[in-house]
Amino acid sequence: MKYSRPLLIWALTCIFVAVANYFSIFQSLEGISYDWRMTQIRSGLSANDKIAVVLIDDNSLQVMDQVVGRWPWPRSIYAELLDYLSYGEPQAVMFDITFSEKHLFDGKNIRAEINDHDLALVQASQIYPYAYHATRFVRESEDELNKSLLNQALPDDFIQRFSLSKRFPKSIINKNSFSAPNNTKYYLPFAELAIASNGIGVVDVNSDFDGVYRSARLLHRYQESFFPALSIANIVDKQPPLNIKREGGQIILDSLRIPITQDEKVLINYYTAFATYSFSALMASYQKMLAGDVENLMVNPFEFNDKIVFIGANAAGLKDLKVTPINGRLPGVFIHASMASNILNNDFLIPAKSYQTYLFILILAAITTMGVLLVKQTFWQHSLPALLAISFTFWCYFQFSNNIVVEFVAPISSLFLAWVLSFSTLVFTEGKEKRRFKKMMSQYLSPAVLNTVMANHEDYAKAEIGSKENITILFSDIRSFTNMSETLPAEQVVDLLNHYFSKMTDTIFRYEGTIDKFIGDAIMAFWGAPIMSTDHPDKAMLSALEMIDQLEAVNEWAIQHKYPPLTIGIGLHTGYAILGNIGSENKLDYTIIGDNVNLASRIEGLTKTYSSPILITEDTFSHLTLDIPCRVVDLVRVKGKQKPIKVYQPLLNPLTATEESISEKKAFVRKTNEAFKAYTHRQWQQCIDLLSTDFQDSVSTVHIQRCREYQASEPAQDWDGVYVMTTK
């Protein structure tokens, strides 16, 4: 039963979170978590030095508008760009601009198949072998309008020149190892440009469900052919791989192993610092070069030596700004540039495996549930889940900084759900248990003590286990109450007892005592538990003395109601007893048991013999710290015990007594103790003489009578001063 509730909560939490994760319920929150980590960790990081980006920005649109007119520009402009860059001998120029259609004729040479501007770009692309142009492969759903346009075959020449299997005939390409979806439509560079191009790169990048671009494909499929993304096209051309395949969570290009997600995408490890140039600055530099002014170039073409140069749009009107984890308006060309830099730097994010996420769900839910329900310390019940959540958060952050992506939201959700369910259960069960415990303990404890106990409920609720405690036990009894009750009507007996018990209980509670039970007209109480204390003999003694004082007020009330006055006897003893809830499943009592409990009861019985209102044992007397005058009453062997017990009588309440009365009682104690010493040494007459004074009381009378009997008949030679009680 101890583990059944935690196991149930753990199972329910894991099932719920696992199902929610399977159906992508946490996808939005996970995206936010991923983006935050990307922003915090990747901000300020620079891309590989071999990467350069030329941007068609708003300034370029304004400047070029004065030269060639509004966008789109004549394509001869890009031919001039290639011509300018040729001076620097770049490794590659990657156009993130699609030239899928020819421009209209401008009225000149209208019988030609291509206008002069397009022809200039074609010729430049043919002259400069480092030019790569953009291709698009998209997947469109079929409808009545586009049915004839979908799934058309690629031109054979295009496949022969640019598909991976044809471009790298010596490579072994395991097509069956890839599960990339087949695209249904293509947008190629116009025919002449495709023929002239050294290479192509697929520029399509799909956003995630929330419109954020976090991943992209390296290889794109159209029917049975695979083509490289723009980011990787020149890199694989530079060093053609002999082996291309997917193996588990990786795309393998010879020794290069690129981690991928389950849908064969690479998580883009973004950079925020690139070597960027304005398109207009390059064109202005080109014009100066043509004019022979090479000393004042805005951008020196040699800055692009052996670099991979990406050309893309940054102007808002060109609609190529993407929402990414690090920037809400990032030019799309930076996606390709970042991926290329990831490959050059071998700087890849390693996606989480699904089984790892479910394992974390199980572990965090288990630790949280056990921490809340099985750990008893309140501090750890509250702190452990919080510390676990903080630790897991920092660990995920640390792992991301090492390029390892751990799914955060699903595991942390399992932790919080387990936390909520466990605490709800704890509050419900603890509340129920506390109410039961409070109801039970309110019968025995004062309100003040009960509040203290309830504040530390777990430390005191040991009913099923029990404990052995050092306590002071009190028994009190009304003298001759049986005979009295036979002379009074039942309702008067109950009325008198209730008033008496009320006063006595208030006194016991005032000194933080615990009422064990009422036994007829007797009261059983104890000190030292459930609230542990070292001064419990003092509190018990003060309570007993005040009970005697309170008896006067009870008797005044009794006389007013025409009830007979009461006389009581109180016995105290200090020692170890077993404390706990004792009884059956249907009826439990919070009580104490043991030999010391019986001894305390016997001491109360001795009060009748010595006509003393209060008697205490030497165990209680030796543990008193209060200066209470106590005279030795006797050394007795009570019924059922072999060891003799020295019994004392407290003579006054130090809290209400005057210094004079205390001094008088101390003198009386010295004289009676001297008399008791004479008694134990068989000096009968000396004992009688010491006790036959103005100090004589009921106890003295008992000893005087006993001494005279011993004078008449000496006790046996082995008499040790112990008086043997034959009754309880």
Describe the structure.
With 728 residues, the chain is an alpha/beta fold. It has four domains: 4-18 and 352-433; 45-345, no CATH class; 442-626, Alpha-Beta Plaits (2-Layer Sandwich), CATH 3.30.70.1230; 636-728, no CATH class. Strands 18, 19, 20, 21, 22, 23, 24, 25 and 26 form a nine-stranded mixed β-sheet that branches. Strands 1, 2, 3, 5, 6, 14 and 15 form a seven-stranded mixed β-sheet that branches. Strands 4-10-11-12 form a four-stranded mixed β-sheet, with no helix packed on it. Helix 5 (116-127) links the parallel strand 2 and strand 3. Helix 12 (354-373) packs antiparallel against helix 13.
List the helices and strands and how they pair.
Blueprint: H1 4-22, H2 27-42, E1 51-56, H3 58-65, H4 76-86, E2 92-95, H5 116-127, E3 131-138, H6 156-162, H7 164-167, E4 172-173, E5 185-187, H8 191-196, E6 199-202, E7 215-216, E8 219-222, E9 225-228, H9 230-238, E10 243-247, E11 250-253, E12 256-259, E13 266-267, E14 275-278, H10 279-290, E15 308-313, E16 321-322, E17 330-331, H11 333-345, H12 354-373, H13 378-401, H14 409-441, H15 447-455, H16 457-460, E18 467-478, H17 481-487, H18 490-510, E19 514-519, E20 522-527, H19 536-560, E21 568-583, E22 588-593, H20 595-609, E23 614-617, H21 618-622, E24 630-637, E25 645-650, H22 659-680, H23 684-691, H24 698-712, E26 723-724
